[in-house]
Request: fold
Amino acid sequence: MSPAYAACLERIEAERALLRHERIAAYHCSALPQAVIAGLGMRPVRLICSATPQAAHEGSRLVRPDVCPLVRTLIGNVSLRQGLHALVDIWIGLCTCDHMRRGLDVLGDTLGAEVYPVQLPATRTPEAAAYYASEVVRTVRDIEANHSLSYDETLARQWHIDYATASRALRAIALGGRVRPTVLHAMFHLLCIARPEGLDEFFNQLASSETFCPRRTVLMIGGPLALEDTTALEELELLGIGVVPLQCTGLGMLDAATGGLVPSDIASHAVTAFSRPPCIRARPNDEAFDRIGHYIADLKPDALVFQSLTWCDLWHTERQRIGERFGLPLLCLEADYAEGCAERLRVRIDAFSEVLGL
Amino acid sequence: MSKITAQQWEQRMDAIPEGFKARCTTQPGAVRYLKSPYEYACRGDDMLHRLRYDDSLAALRLWAFIFSEKDRLFAARDHGWRIFAAMKDLGSVPVISYAVPRSLTFYADELWWAPCFAERPHLLEVAARYGAGEELCYVRAALGAMVTLEYFPRPDLCIAGVGACCDDFSAVMQLIEAIGMPVHWWEMPVRHERSALMRTGQFMRTRIGRTAYLESARRFAAGQLAGIRARLEDIAGLRITERMLDASRTRFNAIRARVYALRELVYSAERPPLPGLEMMLAEFIAIHACSDPDESVAVLDGLLDIARARLSLDSSPFGPRPVRVFWATPSTDATLVQLLEDLGGAITGTEYMISHAFYELATDVSVIDAVAESSMDDPMTGSARMRARRIVAEARRFGAEGVIISGISGASHCAFDEAAISHMVREELGLPVLSFDVPFSPGRINQQVQTKMEAFMEVLKDRRMTTAGA
Reply:
C-alpha cells in the first residue's frame, strides 16, 4: 500500500469516526442534491462501501442471490447493523433501477429503516427534471415534518460551494494522470463521506506527494466501484497502468458539481444534480456514450476497462455496443463481492496486459 | 366434456358452420382467421401440438385470434396502416394509440412467449448477438423479433415506458433503439407506498383498484401520456381529437369489462367453466386487444356465452371439485398450466402483472387523465408488497387452496416478488406456496419443475383431506 493510499484511508477512517456525532442521511446515487440534505442540518453521506462477502451473504438471506450485489450488500449491512450503515438515521432512496427500488422497499418494510424513496427519472426531458425536483422538494418537506427540522438555504449553498471547490481539485487530479488508481479511488470515496470544506487542500497535498508515472492509461467505465472493490485497480496499478475513472464513483460524480451557477432553492439544487452526466440507465443513453467518446478524444487512452456488477442488466447489455463503438481494446470485468471474485479479476487483467503490450 | 388435441381440432374444422367461420374476420381486409391450432402449429408454433384445448367454438376462436395476430399486423402494413409497438406499460398506451385511424398497436413484450411456443431459441439467439444474453428474462426475444421482423413489420414508432419498469426490458428497449428503431421514450412514475413518513404529498386512491398513489405521480403520468399523444399526431400527420380518444376509451372499456366479467365468472365457480390456458390468453387481450379491438369484443363475448351456458348446465372441462390454485406471474411455458390441470388442479385466480388492464377507465374525466389514473393500478410500478396484497385479496376472494408463483429467470422484479408474495400468502392466508423459475425447455416439461408441481399438488390434496377429516 502506497503512503498516499494509506493516508487517504486513514482520513476516511477519521471522517467515519466523526460521523458518530452527526445526524446522517445516507444515499447512493450521485444525482441526489446532497446540499439540500446539508440545508436540513443533516449530514449527507454517500454509502458505496462495506461491500464485503459477509454483507452480500447476509443480503442473500433476505433477497434472492440474483439481486445486484450492491443492493444485496446494502441490505446485508443494514440487517447486520454494521459499519457506517448502523449509524444512518435516514435513507434517501433514489430509485435508480428496479433492483435498487425494490431493495429500498426491503430496507424499509423488512428491516424497519427510515427510507424516503425518490424517483430519479430515466428520461432526461425538462418535464422529467421538473418531476425529479418535485420529488426532492416533497422529500425535504417530509423530513422537515418528521424530524422537526427547517431547511436553511444558506447551509445548502455553502455546502454546494465547498463541494464544487473540492470537486474541481479532484477533477484536475484525476485528469492529470499522476496519481495511483487506488489513491484516486480512495479520494473519490473520501468526498462521498467527508465534509467538503477544505478537502481540496487535502487532495492537492496528497497528489503532490505522488510520483506515479503510468506506462499506459485506461478509461474505466461501468457501474459504481465500492470503496473495497479495489482488486482491478490494484492489478492495473501493479502493471503501471493509470486509470481515469468515468463512473459515478469517479468523474461522473463531479462533472455536474464543478461549474455553473450556485442553485438558489431546493428545486434548483435538484435540477442541477439531475443535469449531471447521464448514466447508462438514461433513456435514451446516447449522451452517456457521447461522454465516453469525448473523454477518449481528449485523453487518448490506450484501452477501456469496463467493470459492472453481476446482475446489472443496464450496464451488462451495453458491453457489446461499447466495444463496437469506440474501437479501443476493451476489457470487461464483472464483480459480485463474493469470495473468489478477486482471483478471477486478476487473471483477466493479467491476460489483458498482453493486449496492451506490457 | 373433455379437452381435445390440436389434431382433433383439425379433424373437426370441416364440421364448423360456414357462418361461424365467416364471422371470424379481422381488419384490415376482413381476413378470415379461424384455423385450427394444428394449422398454427404447422406454421411454426410447435408447442401447440402438445397442448390440449377446450372443445368449444369460442375457445377455438380465441386460439385462432391470438395466433393470427402476426397476419393482422402484416396485412395492416400491406393496407398502408400505421403500426405502433407499445412496450412495457401493458395496457395504457394502446388506449391512446388506437385513436389514430388506420393503425394497429401490438406489445413487443409479448414476444417473450414466442421462443417457448415455437420451441426454438431462434429469437433468443438473435437477441444475444445484439447484446441481450441469458442474464435477461425471455423478454429479450422482443429484440430478436425487432431484428428479424418475422412476427411484425417494422413499427412506425416504438413507445417505450421506462422509469418504474424492470431493468431487463429497459435494457432491451435501449438495444431496440440502437438497431435503428424509432423510439418515443416516456417516463412511468414509481408509485410510492403510502406510509407514515410521507406526510406532505397528497395521496389518492384509484376508483376500482383502490390503489393508493401520489397525485403528483398521476399528474406527471398524464403529462407523459399527453406527450405520447403529441408524438402520435406528428407521426400520423393529424390531430387526435378528444372524440377520437373517447371512442378508443369506449372500445377498451368494452374489452376491459368483458375480461373482468369473465374472470369473475370463471374463477369464482366451484368447477371453472374454462381451462386455465384459455383464460390466460383471454386476460392478455385486455392489454392491447390483440391488434383488433372490435374482434376482441366478439371473441370475449363468445367466451362469456360459453362460460355462462356451462355454469347454468353445471358443465365444465374439470372433474368434480378440482384443487383451486391461484397463479401469480404468467408462465412462459404454457404446458405447465396444462400439467396443473392434469394433476387435478384448476386455476381459480391469477395475477399476471396486467391486473390494472381489467379495470374500466373512468369516463367522467379526459381520456388522458383516465389512463393516467388507471396506470396507477399497474403492479409493476409499485412495490412487491402491493402486488402481494392484491394477490392475497384475490386468492382469498376466489377461495384458493394454494398459490403458485412461476418466476422468470433474470427478471428484475421476480427476485423480490417471490419472497414478498410467499411471505404474505403464508402469513395471512396460511396457504402453501410453490415458487420456481420456469426454464426454457423446448419439446418437454422440465423434469425438476414437474416434480415440484406434482409434490405441491399432493400437498394440496392431502391438506384438503385433512381439513375435511377435521
The first strand of chain B starts at residue 4 and ends at 5.
